[in-house]
Amino acid sequence: MNSFLGLVTNLKIKTKLVLMVIFILLLVCGVTTYYIQVDQIDSMGNELQKRGYTISNYLADSSINPILTEDVIRLQQLIESTKNTQNDIVYVFILDENGEVIVHTFENGFPVALKNVNPANGEESDKLLDIENEYVRDIAHPILGGRIGEAHVGLSETSIRATVSRSIRNKIIITASLVFIGILLSFATGTIICKPLLELKNSAEDFGKGNLDSRVRVRRHDEIGELAESFNNMAEEVKILVQEKEINRQNILETKDYLDAIISASHDGIFVLDSEGKFEFINDAVRDISGYDESDLIGENFKSFIPNDYKVFMNSRWQEAQKGMEKAYETKIMAKDGSLKDLIVDHRSIEVHGERKYAAVIKDITEIKKIDEMKSNIISNISHELRTPITIMRGFIEVAMDEIDTSKRVKYLNKSLKALDRQNQMIEDLLEVSIAEKEKFIFNYETVDLEDVIDTTVKNVIPKAERYDIEIRTDLEKNLNAKADRTYLVYALTKLIDNAVKFNKKGGNVAITARHTDGFIKVCVEDTGIGISKGNMRKVFDKFYQVDATTTRKYGGSGLGLSIAKHLIEEQGGEIWVESELGKGSIFCFTVPKAH
Ligand code: ADP
Q1: Ligand 1 binding pocket includes 530 (Cβ within 6 Å)
Q2: How large is the angle between the packed helices 486-502 and 450-467, nearest 10 degrees?
């Protein structure tokens, strides 16, 4: 049943319409035909019955005399004449009071089948018989109340039935014609209804495929027309919604791009951890700070990147973060190259789609920390450097005071004077830095012979070089006249040669060259010392910068010399730079404009 319903439901509308019309026509025609047939048979049957009663009644009355007089010939004549009066009288016969046939009209003898088939039993009776393919209505009438016999008349119903079947045939023809017309009409109606529906379906499909301008032409104002109009309105609404959605999507994408650009342009690292502490998002700065790629970090727990010494500390911070405590703190992480990075971490707990996450901003303060450390080292270094000459001076002065030998006393006092000069130099350095800070250097330009400047400077440094067993060589071109401030030039060159000795290896060399270049004189100081790493080469010219804070004490110094030298050279129109290889040595060069 269900599958039948499913079959019917899935049929096309046109087919359904045709089937429905056929069904209705067949039903109407079938029911009317049936009732008409029954009614026709009934009324014709009644008429036949009435006629039969009249004939049998007449026969019964007319046969009394011949029966009583036993005049069989008259009786035979009576039934023959009665049979001949009407075409549909099939037979006539008369029985005696014992049911024996007295006379009959059958040519081939009285059929046994008719015996006692419809006894009158004192009153009229009728019965429909099927004799030899003919429907016969047998009507019996008692003669003298049945005391002397009964008269039977057989009337044919065949003609009635023929009339009825003719009328049925006609009705079938009419029904078939109606069904045919009905099919044609319903097919035409179906086409009229379905065509716009098909158009609607095609438009809906087209619309569904993304053609938002797909519309149906509204040609009529019936329900289908209204449906088409509703579809068009709906399509218009959907188009507006889709366009709005697209605009919103574009806005969201633009905003996202904008935020992405801000986030990736940030020098501070920004990252998001999930509720378990695994990286979900990192910006470019996190990559730059840590050296790790996105693929190294995403999905990894942040704890894997914390150095052992900081693990306990970071566990406590993580627990605080989970309790919703938000505060910035300093920590260290292990970068991909194995170095430790100092960070300031500031995180916030956020809720995304009902899940707790942690957004954090990190600031790389490794350099600041290093500079801070260096500054504090330098302060203690400078204090130490300032105190050392005082101790030396005090020692020599005390010894000199007790010394009677004048030449020895002078020697001690000279040494004390040198210590004083050293201290004076240091104070000069510091003063020059503070002057440089305020841009108050005053340059007295003159033509300076660089050969003379180099000689003077080398002489100043030779005692120190000898102490470290370092040889200083010079290779100078002729006529090295520069336009410069002699004092500042001596200062800058002294710093370079002093460093070349200070950061050299025992038994090493320092080579000083001076060459003419285009409009300039180029002076280089090359050493065979400890060298400078690539990353530090630019920084050595920064104020207070010393490559390794822990070795500064070993070498002494304030980290100011090169920054002052740079300032002085550049102010005079030259340039200063360094080329170096770690462990092999460095070449510091500068240029000064030639004198015209
Ligand atoms: P300092 O007083 O520390 O020498 P400088 O400004 O002269 O200060 O130098 C800064 C730093 O540059 C030094 O501390 C040292 O680390 C590095 N440096 C300078 N000259 C050389 C050199 N010739 N070889 C190696 N390192 C050097």
Answers
A1: yes
A2: 30
What span, in angstroms and rounded, lies between the C-alpha atoms of 413 and 411? 5
The C-alpha atoms of residue 570 and residue 588 are separated, in whole angstroms, by 14
Specify whether the CB–CB gap between 187 and 14 falls below 8 A: yes
Segment 25-83, tens digit of pLDDT: 788 878 887 887 778 778 888 888 898 899 999 999 999 999 999 999 999 999 999 99
Q: Give 499 Cα–ligand 1 centroid separation in angstroms.
A: 6
496 touches ligand 1 (CB under 6 Å): no
Q: Smallest Cα–Cα separation from 17: which of 143, 169, 188, 177?
A: 188
475, 481, 485, 515 from 448: Cα distances, Å: 18, 5, 8, 15
- The SS3 of residue 335 is coil
**Is the model's pLDDT at 431 over the cut of 80?**
no
214 lines ligand 1 (CB under 6 A): no
**202, 186 in Cβ contact below 8 A?**
no
pLDDT tens digits for 471-522? 999 999 999 999 999 988 998 999 999 999 999 999 999 999 999 999 999 9
In the beta sheet, which residues pair with residue 566?
A: none
Instruction: Write the DSSP symbol of residue 133.
Output: T
For ligand 1, the distance from its centroid to the CA atom of residue 537, given in whole angstroms, is 10
The H or E element that residue 409 is part of is: helix 406-437
- Interatomic CA distance for residues 348 and 353, integer angstroms: 16
Q: What are phi and psi of 81, to 5 degrees?
A: -65, -35
Q: Which H, E and C letters describe 70-102, residue by residue?
A: CCHHHHHHHHHHHHHHCCCEEEEEEECCCCCEE
